[in-house]
Amino acid sequence: MGRLDGKVALIFGAGPNNGGTIAHFMAREGAKVAVNDIIPEAATDTVDFLAKKGFDAIALPGDASVEAEVKSIVAQAVDHFGYVDTMVNLAGRQFRWPVTDINPHDWEREIKTYLTAGMYTTKHVARAMIEKERKGCMLHIISSAGHYGEAGNSGYSAAKAGLLYFSRAAAMDLAHLGIRVNTITPYFMEHNLFRFGATGSSGPVFRTRYMATPDDFLRSIPMGRFPRAADLAYAAIFLASDEAEFLTGVDIPCDGGTRFKYPAWQPGLFTGVNIGDYIKENKPQMYGEQVEPDEYPRMRFG
Prior knowledge:
Strand content: 5-15%
């Protein structure tokens, strides 16, 4: 039996990387899956992939930062499958600037697409669970930027930190109903190497006062590799399963020990790990399965 047999998962932000992999792995564990993305092709591509594997899935495109669209997406998922008892939210749009150059328009879009979208998805999925008398789990994907001050990325840090603490408060609001709200926090993700075309011994040359290179990130991870979409998916499956029925308000760091290492210790200085060798030894993944680099759609979907 699958760990998610009988469950219905609604995933916001389900392109071929993080969200699509979570959808794929949840389907493998027995869940029926509704996938959303603001880019319709991303949602339909994910459903096409799942259908070829024989899984039950539907595409529900729309903007998670618009309340009417979220309400409609949740209603369509319930109409199709009868209920929803698992929600995963990966929606959002990131912009980068130093504090002195913040663009107010983009700041508001960033807060809306991460934090406000998190509120709308939680609100309407919770209502659907209550109406159908389903105990369930909602998951929000945070970022290490939501736990630390990341130079040049203050809007993203603020939005993700807000989503983290919104999730904890929502967990308290819904606990008496048996509805759990948890979060997962990744570090710099492996697929970004292939999305942005990292090559050479040090990856893209964008180290500035406000930006680190992939090599900087890699050398800071005690376990010596980047988190993959599959790592997020396995954490999401656990939190969505009945095995975690007494866990709410929890954040799982998916970062190979980075959050808890002593700040001054740079493990990569002693292991010799470097981005050039890393890229040579790894291939990009879509939906949690390895593909050849020339098959990977750089920057098409998040």
